[in-house]
Amino acid sequence: MYAITGITGQVGGALARTLLAAHQPIRAVVRDAEKAREWAALGCEIAFASMNDASALAAAFEGAEGVFILPPSEFDPAPGFPEARAVIDSVKTALEWARPGKVVCLSTIGAQAAETNLLTQRTLMEQALSMLTIPVTFLRPAWFMENFAWDVAAARDEGVLVSFLQPLEKPVPMIATADIGRVAAELIQQNWSGCRVVEIEAEHRISPSEAAATFAKVLGHPVEARVVPRETWANLFESQGTKYPQPRIRMLDGFNDGWIEFESSGADIVKGKTKLETVLRGLVARAA
Question: What's this model's pTM, rounded to 2 decimal places?
Answer without folding.
Answer: 0.95
